[in-house]
Amino acid sequence: MLELVQIGSPARPQPRPEWLKVRLPGGKNYHELKQTMRGLGLHTVCESARCPNIGECWQHRTATFMILGDLCTRRCAFCAVPKGRPAPVDWDEPERVAEAAAGMGLKYIVITSVDRDDLEDGGATAFALTLAALRRRIPGCKVEVLIPDFRGSDDALRIVLAARPDVLNHNTETVPRLYSVARRGARYIRSLRLLARAREIDPSIPTKSGLMVGLGETLGELHDVLRDLSRVGIDIATIGQYLRPTRDHLPVARFYTPDEFLTLKHEGERLGIRHVESGPLVRSSYHAHEQSRTVVA
Prior knowledge:
By secondary structure, the protein is of the alpha/beta class. Helices cover 37% and strands 12% of the residues.
């Protein structure tokens, strides 16, 4: 607990400001999509990470598929995805993802995964197979992948890039100083290197990265991260407010105002990032299709 105090976490939970309050999920499309996912044995990061936008996105029939199971091999202190020993890879899952996406009538699909440090390729082959299945099932669709760091493996990264995603996303998540507290098992420099290598291996594929705020970082540290992301050539940045999933996760140090998010957006754009999506409820895949329009032909 002393470590939490050192990064500026308050002793008591803060009430959420009005701009962070959302409606409970519901509606016909929401329930139909949930039934589809359960019927096909699929997972979404929307549910596993307790995303506040799930009601809005699912009502509009958009979702981010989470492949390779629902148990993560890492224990990031901000993330609600369950941790544990994952089951063996389900090699039929790519076809079921494609079936669900086709049934939903999706033309822009986001695929992510839990961390699978137990696999030699970190799950890269499963990403590639899912991309191929989607393209077979839905000709002309666009696919964004939100990948883990693959423990820095260029071979794993090449497998994903060879499958030609329309956008390659890897989240930086927070500032370097807070990695040891918030993002255990990850390294800031490794994440930056992955994004840089993606541009070097295939500069035709746009890259993207996301940040949370409210963990105890300073504005100066956020500006430094945006500068680093600009230097490695990312095309899209997302910036959103961290919300504590449960009492077992890191507390919120503070809530940023909408004006502060606008300031961060302008700073990212000033540094040369082509599209910056910045707001209290912004998440990596929130409005992903709209974000990509500025960088995907």
